[in-house]
Design brief:
Length: 373
């Protein structure tokens, strides 16, 4: 460092000190002035400050409500069921013989009394002829015995034996004629020939299945209803049956089981529907829409439903004292948009917004909405 720089450094330091002192004085003056200004402002508003309360009363929770009224509703019960023929009969052989003719054709419509199968009659006719001869013989013996008995040439015991033999021969003749009649196997009901398992020439025995006759002009639809819903049903309830392809049929409930199924604990129901065209729908699955009696119910969006601590479904509402109340209810019908419920008062003010911040017993500030749910 040279001598010249050493001589000027004290002067610079003095100059900087003077400037710093001046700035500090200016800041101090500004602070003092501003303090007086704030004090004046505070003094002007001091009455307002003194008038402010030291504590505030908390406001009631605000909820949005809607006045809900009961209306007439026709509930419908939706079930899944199966269609079956109202009449289906398996025809059995009642005598042993060989199939001689089979006039019935598989799948054809056959009237009641028409012949399905003709069995061989040769053996049966021979048995009938033999039985007729036996009857003639025993009747002749009985007539002769009665003449001898009148002349006291025959004991009463022998006469009774001849009478019993004659009666037995007549019974044998009746059996032989019946066996001959059983060689003509006829349709017991009108319907479609659904099976013909045996062919001409085959030997049949009593109990063999000859044919299956199915009447599909009248159908029976069977379904199962839960324990909760069976009490709402009654005989004669109208219903609509919809097939998978969209075809619909109409009928009414004809049977409701009095005992629940052991496995499912549900109750079987049946209904009859007409199928005059004989459409091939027996055995198909179907959806049943059963119309139940009209009731007074409320229509509520499912999002407003809630559960109480015990698991009971219900809805929160506000009573006349503006207190939150839980009303239990019963669902009778629902979809993604609305639920139809019963068990509520005819008219009530339900909470539509803010229910999550309240509980039964809370006092609230309700605001009634005008727009529908």
């Amino acid at each position: 460092m040279d001598l010249k720089e050493t001589q000027h450094s004290p002067r610079r330091r003095n100059f900087v000190s003077i400037i710093a002192a001046g700035l500090a004085s200016l800041v101090l003056i500004v602070w003092i002035i501003s303090g007086k200004t704030y004090q004046s402002v505070d003094s002007d508003h001091s009455p307002a400050i003194k008038a402010m309360p030291t504590s505030t009363i908390p406001s009631l929770p605000r909820v949005q409500t809607y006045e809900l009224s009961a209306k007439t509703f026709t509930p419908k019960l939706i079930l899944q069921g199966t269609l079956s023929p109202s009449h289906q009969v398996q025809v059995y052989a009642r005598t042993s013989s060989q199939i001689q003719e089979r006039p019935a054709k598989l799948g054809q419509w056959i009237e009641q009394g028409e012949m399905l199968v003709q069995l061989d009659t040769e053996t049966r006719r021979a048995l009938v002829e033999k039985a007729e001869a036996d009857v003639y013989l025993h009747r002749s013996e009985l007539e002769a015995g009665e003449r001898l008995f009148k002349n006291r040439l025959l004991s009463e015991h022998e006469k009774l034996r001849l009478r019993a033999s004659a009666a037995a021969s007549e019974a044998a003749l009746a059996d032989a004629k019946l066996a001959l009649a059983h060689t003509r196997i006829k349709a017991p009901i009108a319907g479609f020939v659904n099976s013909l398992p045996l062919d001409i020439g085959e030997l049949v025995q009593p109990g063999d299945v000859i044919a299956t006759i199915t009447d599909t002009r009248n159908l029976k639809v069977k379904a199962y209803v839960t324990q909760q819903d069976v009490g709402r049903m009654s005989l004669g309830n109208p219903l609509k049956v919809t097939l998978l392809d969209g075809r619909t049929f109409f009928g009414e409930v004809t049977f409701i089981a009095n005992l629940a199924d052991v496995a499912t604990r549900s109750y079987a129901i049946e209904a009859n529907i007409n199928n005059p065209d004989g459409l091939r729908i027996a055995g198909a699955s179907a959806t049943l829409e059963i119309v139940l009696p009209e009731v007074l119910s409320h229509r509520i969006p499912p999002s407003l439903l809630s559960l109480d601590p015990s698991g009971q479904i219900g809805i929160l509402a506000v009573n006349n004292e503006q207190v939150v109340v839980f009303h239990p209810l019963t669902l009778i019908s629902f979809d993604t948009d609305y639920a139809q419920v019963i068990g509520l008062p005819d008219t009530l003010e339900i909470i539509t917004l803010g229910a999550g911040f309240t509980q039964p017993g809370d006092k609230v500030e309700p605001h009634l909405q005008e727009s529908p749910l």
